[in-house]
Sequence to fold (250 residues):
Amino acid sequence: MKIILNWLSIFALSVSALTATSHTVKAQSTPVPPSNPPAIDIVPPPPPTNRTTPSAPINPTSKPAPINPTPGQQKTTQRLCASNSVEDLLPPPVGSTNNSPLSYLQQQGFRQEQDGSWACYVSDAKKEGRYYTLLRAQQNNGKLVASSFLDQGTLKEGQDNRSVDFFMTLIENQTKTNQGNRQSIRRYLESFISLVKQGKVQPSLKGYLFDQPNRGFVLYHPLSSGKLKGTAITINIDTPVSQVPVQPIR
Fold:
């Protein structure tokens, strides 16, 4: 899959814009629709394009198994990315991933792309032989950007829980938050995604601060380019943890 090369640079500009605002939203509070909380305008990343592979068709009814995490816990027996159904359709993976600060995502079923990002692919139940990016993360120069993509603006079955687990795995590994803070952040993200699912948060370029020490923002935004029509839920945070790879969650 062809990855948009300017994805990270756009978010680098976004972070600069974020630091100029004095508005904050506490992680312990429940997010509300964009008409009420203070928010700032940021530019979301362009989405990856979908891909159709005519050969070796996949089972169009296959779906990644949903994750039902215990609140406050990060350890799960189900991988974040159940991509076995599309592995035969994907291009060969890149070389060594030892220098990537997100290399632990490989054990969760993610694949590293040429630009250094890590992506989780899923099949399209509506079209045989088609797959697209469900989750993607990239870290560079102390900035972490991670997205959960909604095809046609709709969350797949189990994608809400999977997205929260994905974001929290990154936050636990890449920031210095303690367990109490992570529990508050998890509740905030769960509430935010629930409002998105209910249609109470509309796509926009407004970001909401969920982690003040790490300048962590979440937004629900339209996809500005690419063939995948829909929206994405994206987090954008500073990562004080060293770029040295950390041990994966087991």
Summary: The two ends are 29 Å apart (CA to CA). Confidence is low (pLDDT under 50) at residues 1-30, 32-44, 51-76, 242-250.
